[in-house]
Design goal:
Helices cover about 30% and strands about 25% of the residues. With about 425 residues, the protein is of the alpha+beta class. The strands form five sheets. The chain has a six-stranded antiparallel β-barrel with strand order 12-15-14-13-16-17. Strands 6-2-1-10-19 form a five-stranded parallel sheet, with helices on one face. α9 crosses α12.
Amino acid sequence: METDIVVIGGGAAGCMAALFAAQSGAKVTLLERNQKLGRKIYITGKGRCNLTNASSVQECMANIPRNPRFLTSALTQFPPEEVMSFFEALGVPLKIERGNRVFPRSDRASDVIDALLMALRRSKVNIVQGRAEAFILQDGSVIGVKCENGSRILCKAVTLATGGISYPATGSTGDGYRMAKAVGHTLQPPVGSLVPLEAEDCARMQGLSLRNVGVKVVDQNGKILYREQGEILFTHFGLSGPTILSASAHMRNFESESYRIYIDLKPALEEDVLDRRLLRELEAGANRDLRHILEALEPRSLIPLILERSGLSGDLKGNAVTKVQRKTLMTSLKSLTFLITKPRPVEEAIVTAGGINVKEISPKDMASKLCKGLFLAGEILDVDGYTGGFNLQIAWSTGRAAGLGAAKFCREEETNEV
């Protein structure tokens, strides 16, 4: 088989690269190992697809902790507002929710995939199911792709958009890393980002979800790395939930550093206000056990831990609680602390931090500086963002840049041949 461009990977970045390359006049083959495109898109935003964040380029970059400057050109050329216009033009009405998160109005990720698939078909992109095994090289340039089944696709350029290693069931198993390293690219070791965290003292609260609590991440030197208010979930291994996943992106050096998470169970109440509330509850339940009095403030499954951290017995009567003991209760309510032992495995992460060294990639068109005719896009690159649609925005922008870059490369190659 022969084509102008082979795009390896039918996720967000790959679909965008294939579409923009085809719309630029290139003959494109999209190679996807799964039966359906966009497997990972289906599960983003809990199946609703948080496809971008309605923010400026500068705000986007502020939410990309690793190598944001590399993305300046790609994000400027295809910012969130244009991504939104792009999908609405494809027939996907959008809405903006809390935190400027953008979703399909239908709340169905499948609508995003269906719209992309129809656009690819209209642009005559040849979609082939298969797994890429290796590049075919000639004089240091990529001239094709060898597939696992032994078939070969000859081409002028290849865009590698195979994703990272998070959610391997969706096809992100690290194939792209191996292929890129084979032509000289170096790799920042991939780790999980936006990943649940392991912590002690959480199993007894397994399944408990808390909304509108304050979360603060502090490193071993006492530096505050992250502070936000939102939802957390206690699990058998530790902590999860949207706010914890966001917090995990700030905890990147477990080999050399330790981290603690402080949870403010009553962020809407200043300490003096909460103290008066606690005092009222104690006076109203003067002859009741403290464990039952606290049920007016917190879920029952959380109370044993609060009491343990406060050094108080649940049998203590309300009228026996001293001012000093009330102060220790306040500390637990406003600053319940958990030592984070480690993140969960990268396979459980939403995105992969780490990847191909961006110093080896041209930021304007995502072209490899080491292998002529090779372009890279999406999660395979050493860039990642926080929750809120920023990671898909990276995929759309870098995919578009790679697609246009590959199409331009093909045109130049044809001119040189003439």
